[in-house]
Amino acid sequence: VGRYPSLFLTQQMMVVGAVTFLPAAAVETWLHPFAFPSLAAWGGVAFLGVFCSAIAFLLWNRVIPLLGVAATNNLLNGLPLVRVLTGVVALGEPMTPLIATGGVLILGGVILAGRAAPPPAAGATRSWRSSAGRAPGRRGVRSAATPPASSPPAG
Predict the structure, then answer these.
(1) Is the dihedral angle over the CA atoms 64, 66, 68, 71 positive or is it negative?
(2) What is the pLDDT of residues 92-137, one digit of tens each?
(3) Which of 88, 96, 59, 55 is nearest to 75 (CA)?
(4) Where are the alpha helices (DSSP H) in the chain?
(5) Do the beta carbons of residue 129 and residue 135 sit within 8 Å?
(6) What pTM, to 2 d.p., does this model score?
(7) CA gap 146, 155 in Å, rounded
């Protein structure tokens, strides 16, 4: 992640995701035709695509190098709490004792898991490659930038 700009990674994820889902969407539309969506529905799709997907992934990709993968993924566990609180505040959903108890448990779990995650080293960039330049689990495969362990003398 640290080797590429966040905007580039986000763009690649969006394109690959769209291309991957297009064939299935075409088949589903062919098997189960639906009425043409209204302008408000298209606005909702645009909002979800821009704010809930593209901007969220962009922010996510910018946070991973700062916090590390473990700490960033731990934040996913807090999303149910955010969703429920948004429903209570924005939609007027009732706050029940069961919801409050679940919220406390979720928050406690996120905090406990966050304390167990080691902080990233100062100035370190996260990479999917190990320190030897090999992808994890692929023994004997070197990157082009990694010289062999014992190189012949020059000359």
Answers:
(1) negative
(2) 999 999 999 999 999 999 888 888 656 666 655 554 444 444 444 4
(3) 59
(4) 6-31, 39-47, 56-67, 69-74, 79-91, 97-116
(5) yes
(6) 0.49
(7) 20
